[in-house]
Every structure is written in structure tokens, then in C-alpha cells.
Write a structure and sequence with these properties.
Layout (H helix, E strand, L loop, with lengths): L1 H18 L3 E7 L4 E3 L12 E6 L2 E11 L4 E8 L8 E3 L23 H6 L10 E15 L6 E14 L6 E15 L7 E15 L6 E8 L10 E10 L2 E11 L8 E13 L3 E12 L2 E15 L2 E11 L2 H7 L3 E15 L2 E8 L12 H10 L2 E8 L7 E10 L8 E10 L7 E11 L3 E13 L5 E13 L5 E14 L3 E12 L4 E11 L1
Antiparallel strand pairs: 1-2, 1-6, 2-5, 3-4, 3-6, 4-5, 7-8, 7-28, 8-9, 9-10, 10-11, 11-12, 12-13, 13-14, 14-15, 15-16, 16-17, 17-18, 18-19, 19-20, 20-21, 21-22, 22-23, 23-24, 24-25, 25-26, 26-27, 27-28
Length: 526
């Protein structure tokens, strides 16, 4: 009888949780990360642990690293099968705890709360050694049809290795690096220039990384999991006391702008983290030094809270200004960054989100075009309200809307931004997805409109075909209107032996950029 009651409680809780759990599909897999077709608008949050489901069974766990409104990038924590585009991904449940299981009259002392069951590790996740990784070779080229003739070719090789629970212990090793060679020709007469860069992201060994009481790490530690302050060439030691962890770290800061493996200055810090049933929070004190002198001292505070349909989260950077920083800022304490959000998702088909982001984005001409950077900057900072909705009876439609406001020091007018999204998943062909988007902004320096469309088809064998196109229409202050158009086609083939081949071509035309982007990547997971 007690077993039947337990089964009924678990089934009812799973049904309630399923309704409040954000869901997505795997859109693309790179050598190191898994990219999803949904983001914060669907209810996901940075740091979430996600499940990959096939036929209702969990086959992998992902850690959400980076988040946008309608996309997310994750790292694989554990996978029992090879992941593929189109796999279903489910986020954390929005209920905080299960009701306690009623005790049977014969054995009242043996009843356990669901919270206790949640902390019990299932037998299939026992300590087992795993080792894997990926290797990929890629090429990207641009042929400039404009007057500048800025052609370039970029060759890259990426290697990632990860071992967990090695030698029967809670021991983890990780290696991630990329070698890139860039050859550029500014115009038809100038000699070609060449640039080579080796970037080592992570080369670390950790003891107690998963379940140990002590957590020891050394090497080049990637930012995020070990330290919110960023990557570090040094050591970290942490002590776990139940759901609380405290620790310290010290080392050098990697210099990403220099070639090879270079460092700039030192960084040290103390951290305190705690995970509760419905919330988690962290506090980190960081000190950075350049050439033996204090460069920056600041506090990092972050938290997230979930209860029912509500999810709240925040991240704050508070600078303690000293020496030249205090003279420049004229304040001892300064709020340098704030990123906060609140989501209300009463049903799986409806959600509202509020964002406040006071971080400064950088116009990146190396990775994206100037108009793309302008639109990205307008919609990724400031305050915004997001809406996502699947109309009842029309599950094949996905609707989204966004409105935002950004005001920076020195701006008399501020910048407004907005966006509308329409997704169509034909019922007769679930592997086909059509997304229509239009984004716009209006500010003191410029105003613009960016419509786009993307059609993707996923095949049962793991292949994927995509077609996309759009336009950037914007007008800088006191200048004539600028027009840019683009059309892209990409193909991803799932090859035998867990290998893949990705091909892409994009044609750009307009006032800022004219030419063809070409790309190819060949990789293998092992």
C-alpha cells in the first residue's frame, strides 16, 4: 500500500512540475557546447541544470552557461548517448518541494520527505569513470566585393578533453584550447598580413569537483564554475558544509589580447555560496593587481529564487574604489554592473519576464558587422519586458514580444527598443521550424529596423538544413540612411563514428558590407 501511495505522489508531482518547466530543443552542437532554440523568454536562467529527454527518459544533463532571449549555450555535464539536433531539453522544475509521503500505520518511522529523496543520488548516477572530448578543424573566409577588398581566411583547430571520476575517485581533468591562423588582405595592392594565436581556455585538474567535501583545483581555471570573477591561472580550495561552500583562490589573470599563453596581473578572492531548496546565492570578494599596484577591488553578489510560477535572479558588481579609481569616480563605492530579472510563468504556454541590465556591451567589429553590433547593443542592455505565448489550440504557433528602454550617462534622449517573434511548427512536419522576427530601436545616435526570417529542417538521421535572410535598415545621426541585406544557407551532416560536417555560405550586400562569407567545420566526438 505504501508503495502505491509513493507512486501516486511522484506521478502527481511530476505532472505539476512538467507544466512549470521551461522546454527547448537542441538547435546546434559545436565541439564544446550545445546550443538551444530558447532562452530567457522561455523561463531559463544562467546556471540552470537541464535534462535532455528521449522518449520521456533523461539521457543527458547540461549546464546553462550563456543566455539570450531566444537562445542559450550549454556545456554537457553527463551524456549516456550521443546528442543530436532536435533533442528535447527540459529546465528545472518550478515547484519547490513535494508533499511528504503519508506513512503507513505499520512503519511510521520510515517515511521520508521528498526533499530527502531529492538529495539521494540514483543508482545509475553512481561514481563511474568517464573520459571524452572532441576535435574539430574549421575554415572561415570572406570575399569582399566592396572597394576596400578586405578579404580574409581564418583557419582554426579546437581540442577539448574531459575526464570525470578517474581512478575510482572524484577526480576531474579538463583541457580546452584553440589554435587560430588569420590571413588578411586589406586591398588588392597591399601585402597579405598573417596572425597566429593560441588560446588556452582551460587546463585544470580538480579533486572533489562533484561530491567531495573538499574541492581542490589547479591550472588554468575557466571562469564560471570555479569563480564568477573569470578565468584564472592559479589554485582554488573550497570546503563544503552541507549545502554551503566557502573557499579562496589566487593566481594570474590570462591576457586574451596577447598571442600564446600570456598573463596580466594577479587576482585573488574569497567566496561563499549556499544552495537551498528554493534559492541559491553567492558572495565573492575580488582583488586585482597590475604591476604590483592595486587595480580593482570589488564584490560580486548573485542569487536566484524559485517558487511556484515565479523566478527571481540578480547579479551585482560593487566596486570599492581606491587610489586613482577613487579620484576618477569621486566615490568610495560604485555600482559598476547590475543584471536582474523576474519571470512569471503560470503555465507552460505563457510567460512574462522583466530584465534590468546595466552592463555595457562592446561593439564587436571582429565577430559581427557594424549594423549587427548596433542592434545587439540596443536590445541587450537597459530595461526590457518580454512575453512568450503559445495560443491555446494552436500549439504549432509560438509568439513573443519585447519592449525595452536604455539610458546612459550623457544621453539626453535614451534609446527605446522592441521586438516581435513568430514561430511556426507545422503539425504535419514537426521537424520543420519557421521563425519570423523583427527588431527595432530608436535613439539619440541612430535608429533602425531589422526584419529576418529563418527556416530549419531537422532530419531523423541527425542532419539539419537551414535557410535565413534579413535586412539591417538604420539611420545614424545627421547621416543618410544605411541599407544592408544578407542571405545565409547552412548544412550540418551527422557522419559515422560521432563525427559531423558543417557547411555555411552567406551573401551580404549593402552600404556597410558587400561580399560572401564561407565556412566549413569537420569534427568528431570521442
Amino acid at each position: 500500500m505504501r508503495g502505491v501511495l509513493l507512486l501516486l505522489v511522484l506521478l502527481s508531482a511530476a505532472a505539476r512540475s512538467e507544466a512549470g518547466a521551461p522546454e527547448a530543443r537542441i538547435r546546434y552542437l559545436s565541439a564544446e557546447q550545445v546550443y538551444l532554440d530558447a532562452g530567457s523568454a522561455a523561463g531559463f536562467a544562467e546556471g540552470d541544470t537541464l535534462q535532455v529527454l528521449r522518449e520521456g527518459r533523461a539521457v543527458a544533463r547540461l549546464l546553462l552557461l550563456h543566455l539570450a532571449e531566444h537562445s542559450a549555450a550549454c556545456r554537457v555535464l553527463e551524456a549516456r548517448v550521443a546528442l543530436a539536433a532536435g533533442d528535447r531539453v527540459r529546465g528545472p522544475m518550478r515547484v519547490t518541494a513535494l508533499a511528504p509521503v503519508p506513512a503507513s500505520p505499520a512503519a511510521p518511522a520510515r517515511s521520508r520527505s521528498a526533499e530527502g529523496m531529492r538529495r539521494t543520488r540514483p543508482p545509475d548516477l553512481a561514481l563511474r569513470g568517464r573520459f571524452g572530448g572532441s576535435l574539430s578543424l574549421g575554415w572561415e573566409g570572406f570575399r569582399d566585393d566592396g572597394a576596400a577588398a578586405r578579404d580574409y581566411d581564418r583557419l582554426s583547430a579546437q581540442l577539448g578533453l574531459r575526464g570525470e571520476n578517474l581512478a575510482g575517485r572524484d577526480l576531474r581533468v579538463e583541457l580546452r584550447l584553440r589554435q587560430r591562423t588569420l590571413q588578411r588582405s586589406e586591398n588588392a595592392t597591399a601585402a597579405a598580413s598573417s596572425e597566429q594565436r593560441l588560446r588556452l581556455y582551460t587546463a585544470a585538474i580538480e579533486l572533489g569537483a562533484g561530491r567531495g567535501r573538499w574541492h581542490l583545483a589547479g591550472g588554468r581555471l575557466g571562469g564560471g564554475r570555479q569563480s564568477a570573477a573569470g578565468a584564472l591561472d592559479g589554485v582554488l580550495i573550497g570546503l563544503r558544509l552541507g549545502e554551503t561552500e566557502l573557499g579562496a583562490y589566487y593566481g594570474a589573470m590570462p591576457d586574451w589580447s596577447a598571442e600564446g599563453i600570456a598573463d596580466r596581473g594577479d587576482r585573488g578572492g574569497l567566496y561563499l555560496r549556499q544552495r537551498l531548496s528554493a534559492a541559491q546565492w553567492s558572495l565573492e570578494a575580488v582583488s586585482e593587481r597590475l604591476d604590483g599596484a592595486s587595480s580593482r577591488d570589488y564584490l560580486l553578489a548573485g542569487s536566484s529564487w524559485q517558487r511556484g510560477a515565479w523566478t527571481l535572479r540578480e547579479r551585482v558588481e560593487l566596486d570599492w574604489n581606491r587610489d586613482w579609481r577613487r579620484e576618477r569616480a569621486a566615490d568610495a563605492l560604485q555600482l559598476s554592473a547590475l543584471n536582474a530579472g523576474a519571470d512569471w510563468r503560470p503555465r507552460a504556454d505563457f510567460g512574462l519576464g522583466l530584465r534590468v541590465d546595466r552592463r555595457t556591451t562592446i561593439l564587436d567589429g571582429e565577430q559581427r558587422s557594424l549594423p549587427d553590433s548596433l542592434f545587439q547593443d540596443a536590445r541587450s542592455s537597459g530595461s526590457s519586458l518580454n512575453l512568450s505565448w503559445r495560443p491555446a489550440g494552436l500549439s504549432s504557433l509560438r509568439l513573443g514580444a519585447r519592449g525595452g528602454w536604455r539610458e546612459r550617462r550623457g544621453d539626453a534622449q535614451g534609446t527605446t527598443s522592441w521586438g516581435l517573434d513568430l514561430g511556426i511548427d507545422p503539425p504535419a512536419l514537426r521537424s520543420l521550424h519557421l521563425d519570423l522576427r523583427v527588431n527595432g530601436f530608436d535613439g539619440e545616435a541612430a535608429s533602425g529596423l531589422h526584419p529576418s526570417a529563418e527556416l530549419r529542417r531537422r532530419f531523423p538521421a541527425g542532419h539539419e538544413l537551414g535557410l535565413a535572410g534579413g535586412a539591417y535598415l538604420y539611420t545614424p545621426q545627421d547621416l543618410e540612411a544605411r541599407r544592408n541585406h544578407w542571405l545565409r544557407a547552412d548544412l550540418r551532416l551527422a557522419l559515422p563514428a560521432r563525427s559531423w560536417l558543417a557547411l555555411a555560405i552567406e551573401a551580404d550586400s549593402g552600404d556597410d558590407q558587400r561580399g560572401r562569407h564561407l565556412g566549413a567545420e569537420l569534427g568528431r566526438r570521442f
